[in-house]
Amino acid sequence: MPRKGTGPDFIEALARGLDVITAFTPGRPAMSLTEVASATGLARPTARRILLTLQELGYVRAEGAGFTLTPRVLDLGVAYVRSMGLWDVARPHLEQLSARTGESCSVAQLDGSDIVYVARVAVPKIVALTVQIGTRFPALQTSLGKVLLAALCPEEVDAVLAEPTRSGLTPRWRPDRDEREAELREVRAKGWALTDEQLVLGIRSVAAPLRDGSGRVIAALNVNTHAAETTVEHLVGHHLPLLLHTAGEISADFARRAAVPHVTRTAAS
To answer: What are the extents of the domains in the chain?
Structure first.
């Protein structure tokens, strides 16, 4: 069903255009007009007008009897990452942490009940899941998500997790409310989070919060390992201290960057 706004300022046409863009997934990178209409709940004439508009803007291309997204769609996500400044600040630290651990390292933020990856340095290893910028997973079953959820008050956690996941993945660990609250209390007490094959088999990781100058958690940083290669003891004993140190450095750099005044230059200056 097409989404409906709740206020007079809601632009339904814009919402429908975004629905069409997000209807394309790894499982269906190319779709016919009929498939787009079905996936979005839009009438065929409406879906056709939106697709042709997106094609003219360069976000969609017609291929045979169907449509596919173009690389220009990446501009939408990159604009967000650049506006936050996280990638510029985190990149050298991520590269160093990955080199010291020999593992992939990522930064993610919370979006509803999911985490979304916004920065990543990967190593060439065969793992159970493919992760790239923009990938989303259910938050509660990831170390990144546990850190981000633990930064919320219990009422906020309930509201966030009430939203349906958009990751398309069914996690292995499905805790009840008491188990979930106990897990998040432990994360708050320790200041970091561990996940051990709770999302899928073979994935084991540890994460820590990234903070701004006021101490607010703005993202999370993790080290991701293959469970068959890295024990929990090595992950916590070796990788975790490096992770915590790196998270502190990124947080400090981000706070310093935000404190620098930005001067707007005019044509006369």
So the answer is: 12-69, 76-259
Beta-bridge mates of residue 63 = 66
Angstrom distance (rounded) from CA 72 to CA 58: 7
Return the minimum-mean-pLDDT range out of 24-33, 59-68, 80-89.
80-89
Q: The whole model's pTM is what?
A: 0.73
SS (H, E, C) 196-234: ECCCCCCEEEEEEEEECCCCCEEEEEEEEEECCCCCHHH
Bridge partners for 111 per DSSP:
114
Task: Please give the single-letter amino acid code of residue 175.
Answer: P
**CA separation for the pair 121, 133 (Å, rounded):** 10
Write the pLDDT tens digit of every residue in 227-249. 999 999 999 999 999 999 999 99
107 pairs with which residues across the strands?
119, 221
For residue 24, what are its two tokens? 């394309």
Q: How many residues does the chain have?
A: 269
Fold of 12-69: Arc Repressor Mutant, subunit A (1.10.10)
Options 1.10.8.100, 3.40.630.30, 3.40.50.720, 3.30.450.40; which CATH number does 76-259 get? 3.30.450.40
